[in-house]
């Protein structure tokens, strides 16, 4: 799999065993199957994840006032995952259209995407710590849940 520069100087990864310079060859037949699989997984993730996270945000936002820490963490996780999916969608559009971006804009997009991914990871870690604490102190949480 070697990068091949096209006539418009954009970088496209083609499979090494096909001749993509002929005019009758389909573009999809020239792209390596792993890139097609990654694109399909990204599209399915966005199609399923964006509406689901929006529904979770709407459902949890009505119960946030005076709610438990778990509901707040799940709300923040849904919000962070929604931002991550929007970043994935934006990255797909940028890759598909291949605009000429400045170095600073590329860095900004990378930092935004990195922030979204790390915030999701940190929220998952907080959820696991909260659940561990809840299991270790079961009588404290059991008494709190039965009173409300």
UniProtKB/TrEMBL annotation:
<keyword id="KW-1015">Disulfide bond</keyword>
<dbReference type="InterPro" id="IPR017452">
    <property type="entry name" value="GPCR_Rhodpsn_7TM"/>
</dbReference>
<dbReference type="Pfam" id="PF00001">
    <property type="entry name" value="7tm_1"/>
</dbReference>
<keyword id="KW-0472">Membrane</keyword>
<dbReference type="InterPro" id="IPR000826">
    <property type="entry name" value="Formyl_rcpt-rel"/>
</dbReference>
<keyword id="KW-0807">Transducer</keyword>
<feature type="transmembrane region" description="Helical">
    <location>
        <begin position="35"/>
        <end position="61"/>
    </location>
</feature>
<protein>
    <recommendedName>
        <fullName>Probable G-protein coupled receptor 33</fullName>
    </recommendedName>
</protein>
<keyword id="KW-1133">Transmembrane helix</keyword>
<keyword id="KW-1003">Cell membrane</keyword>
<feature type="transmembrane region" description="Helical">
    <location>
        <begin position="108"/>
        <end position="129"/>
    </location>
</feature>
<comment type="function">
    <text>Orphan receptor; could be a chemoattractant receptor.</text>
</comment>
<feature type="domain" description="G-protein coupled receptors family 1 profile">
    <location>
        <begin position="52"/>
        <end position="148"/>
    </location>
</feature>
<comment type="similarity">
    <text>Belongs to the chemokine-like receptor (CMKLR) family.</text>
</comment>
<keyword id="KW-0675">Receptor</keyword>
<keyword id="KW-0297">G-protein coupled receptor</keyword>
<feature type="transmembrane region" description="Helical">
    <location>
        <begin position="73"/>
        <end position="96"/>
    </location>
</feature>
<keyword id="KW-0812">Transmembrane</keyword>
<dbReference type="InterPro" id="IPR000276">
    <property type="entry name" value="GPCR_Rhodpsn"/>
</dbReference>
<keyword id="KW-0325">Glycoprotein</keyword>
């Amino acid at each position: 799999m070697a990068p091949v520069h096209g006539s418009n100087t954009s970088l496209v990864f083609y499979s090494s065993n096909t001749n993509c310079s002929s005019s009758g060859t389909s573009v999809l037949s020239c792209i390596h199957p792993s890139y097609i699989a990654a694109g399909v997984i990204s599209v399915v993730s966005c199609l399923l994840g964006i509406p689901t996270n929006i529904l979770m945000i709407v459902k949890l936002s009505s119960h946030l006032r005076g709610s438990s820490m778990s509901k707040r963490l799940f709300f923040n996780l849904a919000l962070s995952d929604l931002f991550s999916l929007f970043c994935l969608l934006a990255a797909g559009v940028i890759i598909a259209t291949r605009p000429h971006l400045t170095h600073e804009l590329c860095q900004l997009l990378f930092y935004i995407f990195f922030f979204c991914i790390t915030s999701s990871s940190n929220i998952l870690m907080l959820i696991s710590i909260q659940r561990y604490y809840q299991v270790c102190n079961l009588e404290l949480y059991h008494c709190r849940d039965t009173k409300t």
